[in-house]
Amino acid sequence: MKKFPETFVFGAATAAFQAEGAVTEGGKGKTYWEDYLREQGVFDPSTASDFYHQYKTDLALAHEFGMNGIRISIAWSRIFPDGTGTPNPEGVAFYHRLIDECLSRQVEPYVTLHHFDTPLPLYEKGDWLSQEMRDAFVDFAAFCFAEYGDKVTYWITINEPWSVVAGQYIIGHFPPNIQYDLPKAIQAMHHMMVSHARIVNLYKEKKYAGEIGIVHILESKYPISDSLENRQAALTENTLANLFLLDATCNGRYSPQTMQIISDILLQNNGSLITTPADFAVMQAAAEQLDFIGINYYASHFIQSYAGESLIHHNATGDKGSSIFGLKGVGQRVNNPSVPTTDWDWPIYPKGLKDMLLYIKKHYPNYRKLFVTENGMGAKDVLVNGEVADSGRIDYVRVHLQAILDAIEAGVNVQGYFMWSLMDVFSWTNGYNKRYGLFYVDFETQARYPKQSAYWYKSVSESRELM
Ligand code: BGP
């Protein structure tokens, strides 16, 4: 297939904390990031890309460069500075202005309710591990639906449960910086999926007119060689990071095979998972009503079996080759010499995206529609005379869009693509030197410059063909 369907959405993605800046303006409360990042003293998120003030400029650019969709998120702590209680009128008004501006530019907003930004007081109560947090999240969602539900057609409950728990409890690069606690990570994922499900059910009960989905990061896992041990290791990481969440999302329960593998991981890591029959009733009702799944895809991983203790080094600097990722009871990610990687050691493997899309069609045939809600390449872009020659990014996006075209041709219902990111934004663990944007941001002046990729993306969205 050569052309994308007429209805295919060409968009770009942002997230509130990474784009807005203005972390102390407009009555905003804190998330768990501000104090942590200040104490670390490495990256300052307080201005980010200044989207709080520059959203009109960014939406004008999105429109001018052929985009008809944008992912934004609502910062929970702008609406409820403490996570619960009385809504903050300035925060509420800001998202009315932002959503109105999207609509007036014909850039459809796809709105996420939780994009890595739990309000600090709820984080301190235990974040997703606490019942109070989960109840408060449902209340926040109900508030947003009542407030913005007549304008927003596409809602996303949670962005990337796996990245949240991996960051918080496995890799340890998100507060509370715990490493290798797989049982906590699995428990928190389950809680996130039940919370997601409660919100889907609420949205449907109230008969809002739009659609609701969730976004997962879904990276394919391949055995580095075809031995039984390596295949088992790849299946184990696939189950932990992908299938556990897809089972919950699409079926509202974990399959016996998934539970077998999760139980083995828990056993080897001295933990357990607490679930209740009520959880599964809620999850099943939501699975039947879910409108779409968003897939974030950047990389795939090549896995070999691993008998050691968990050991991870997160490459946050772009020093190629410095990553280590081994998980007790799971496996170890290894370099595949025939697959190129970014400076942050992320394997560039578009086949992994196509394989994942086909996998969902085959194994979760009740999914309704998919969007690729994030895909893009982080690079150390340089601005020369007002221009950025980012041909590497164009090549990256081209091969991933081709993978999507191939999947559509094979019968997968993919309805749109959102490049990460619209403009350069703050990167959670990499700060500002890992740029993804179609528009270069000079973080001193906040001026925007279209990169070569922006012109290319415009021509693709206008012609609906890859060139
Ligand atoms: C996804 C997140 C985004 C974004 C992106 C790039 O996991 O949803 O918020 O940050 O990854 O990641 P990074 O900035 O770590 O390179």
Automatic annotation (TrEMBL):
GO annotation (BP), single: lactose catabolic process via tagatose-6-phosphate
A cellular-component GO term for this protein: cytosol
Molecular functions per Gene Ontology: 6-phospho-beta-galactosidase activity; beta-glucosidase activity
EC numbers: 3.2.1.85
One Pfam family it belongs to: Glyco_hydro_1
Keywords assigned by UniProt, alphabetized: Glycosidase, Hydrolase
Reactions this protein catalyses: a 6-phospho-beta-D-galactoside + H2O = D-galactose 6-phosphate + an alcohol
Active-site residues, as the UniProt record annotates them: 374 (nucleophile)
Pathway: Carbohydrate metabolism; lactose degradation; D-galactose 6-phosphate and beta-D-glucose from lactose 6-phosphate: step 1/1
Family according to the record: Belongs to the glycosyl hydrolase 1 family.
The protein's name: 6-phospho-beta-galactosidase
Originating species: Vagococcus acidifermentans
